[in-house]
Amino acid sequence: MEFPEQDHLKIAKKLEFEKLAKINLNPTGIADLDTILCDAYDRLSPKAVHYHNRRDLIRIFNMMAKDIYGKSAFPPVVEEYGSFVMDIFNEGSDLDLSINFSDPVGMSRQKKIDILRKFGKKLRLIQRTGHVTALEVIVSAKVPIIKVTDTGTGVECDLSVENWDGIAKSHIIRAISAIDERFQKLCLLMKSWAKAHNINSSRDATLNSLSIVSFVAFHLQTCNPPILPPFSALLEGNVSAIISF
Q1: Which end of the chain is more exposed for a tag (fewer CB within 10 A), N or C?
Q2: Is 170 within the bounds of a domain?
Q3: Are residues 120 and 196 in the same domain?
Q4: Is residue 137 within 8 Å of residue 199, measured between CB atoms?
Q5: Which parts of the sequence belong to the Poly(A) RNA polymerase mitochondrial-like central palm domain (predicted)?
């Protein structure tokens, strides 16, 4: 059932009021709570080495793509998206990668699966040398994907093909983060909270990262006074981009 926008706001306000009514928060403890949350954010935030490791993996996957498609007229580029692009990740976060081709013709699901199998074949050879582990080529998923973990860094990489939707959403979230730093901080804290409560896995029918980020954005858009403007204002009336959220 679809609800008008105002009904969504009323429902959110009602649920928020009911939840807050059950919390006995001592006003004098707010400063201490702020300190605790800031300390938690500092511990969760990635360090320079975590950025370096992920950029290096992107470089390596692009070298792999050139090795596989070196003589092709349309060699692919492996592009990052997801939490790394959003800058809402920590040391243990996955690295989402999309294998993108410059050919403007739309690609069928079977073609994407064939591409992943080519990369899977290459990665199986690399796995024998011990440089990667836990290789899975999952072609039955809604979005066919390869999962593989880099042995040296422990970073799990998820490869899909032409995930333009994921790339666009990631850059939109990154742009929203530039409006107010509290958005990025709250997103990282909420993602860690969700992981601690085992509700951060779309594979297990719970919440994925984008869902959590969207909840945080909605809260900051509807609080009084609002911290973030509505997506319609941020995207300047781009209906297709707004609907995709």
Answers
A1: N
A2: no
A3: no
A4: no
A5: 37-177
User: What band does 170 get if pLDDT is binned at 50, 70 and 90?
Assistant: very high
DSSP assignment letter at 235: T
Q: Is residue 173 part of a domain?
A: no
In a domain, 99, yes or no: yes
225: preceding bond cis by omega (within 30 degrees):
yes
CA distances from residue 103 to 73, 148, 192 in whole angstroms, order as listed:
9, 26, 39
Q: Are 188 and 90 in contact (CB under 8 A)?
A: yes
Element holding 10 (H helix, E strand): helix 5-21
Residue whose C-alpha is closest to residue 218's, from 38, 17, 8, 19: 8
Here the CATH number for the domain that contains residue 61 is 3.30.460.10
Inter-CA distances, 146 with 7, 9, 92, 139, 208, Å: 40, 39, 18, 8, 17
Helix, strand and coil percent figures for the chain, each rounded to 5? 55, 10, 30
Q: Which amino acid belongs to residue 239?
A: V
Burial class (CB in 10 A: 0-12, 13-18, 19+), 173: buried
The model's pTM: 0.83
**The tokens of 225 are what?**
């006074």
User: How big is the chain by its Cα radius of gyration, in Å?
Assistant: 20
Q: What is the DSSP string of 47-115?
A: PHHHHHHHHHHHHHHHHHHHHHHTT-SS--EEEEETHHHHT---TT--EEEEEE-S--S---HHHHHHH
